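Quick check before the chapter quiz. The format below is the same one you will see on the exam, so make sure you can read both the input and the output lines.
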Amino acid sequence: MLLFDLENVHKHYGDFHALKGVTLRVPEGSVGLLGPNGAGKSTLIKTLLGLLSMSSGSAEVLGCRLPGEATKVRQLIGYMPENDCYLPYMNAIQYVTFGGELAGMPKAEAFRRAHEVLYYVGLGEARYRKLSGFSTGMKQRVKLAQALVQGPKLVFLDEPTNGLDPKGRDEMLSLIEDVKSRGVNIVLSSHLLPDVERVCESVIMLNQGALVHYGDIEELKTGGDEIVEVETKDQNDTFEKVLLDIGFKTVVQDGLRLKITLPKNKSRDDVLRAAVENDIQIRHFMPGELTLESAFLGLIGEQ
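Here is the expected output.
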């Protein structure tokens, strides 16, 4: 089964094009959703949830056609939003139960499941506390619980580690990995690319409403091309410009070093020759590997 199947999906807000002809077929699994601010990530998620109508195009989610089967889609999908959205006078059990009822569960069943998932996310002892007194980490966990309460086939997680300290972030990612191990499909939208790299096998990249890339993370990081890692003596910016001017299309600054992807017509010798001819001192030169973040920045830069 495909998680979703999109054909030339457009979404307009007046003259602003939030999605520009997105065509995409995504099989089951865990996929990261990446893009700069304003890339169209939230619009895509809300469109796939049936909360926004498409301006044109066609879309299916878990075999259900949108917009006609939007209610069924929301019964099959859990959604953990980025922003807090709860009534502060509610306690955790009321909040998660309410989420189950909104997904079509009978109240008694939703209440029973709410207890289960709150224990699962580590909030069993706090399930009768008011949400207004929860810490940031507890709020993130209770949002995850309400996304899981109806036993979804797919969960959308929008910035699930937002605001968490390193320990809390690691615990949240471990929870997500456990959810994944139980056969639940995941779409993870995050600005923290190491989180995506840890949890997901593939990524969707958007920029300015257009699809930039979809594919396996490991393939993206290698791209089938050789990569060299170079550090100069205080001349990284200059050397990056030199390399781009002579035909190296992907040069990404990663900390103190440059990650240079060698096109088919270039070699390591060409990199060294460019340094010599431009009087640039190289302090570090070795085979390298792109991180997901470096590969992402390179693709966005190319576009």
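If your answer matched, good. The longest helix spans residues 166-181.
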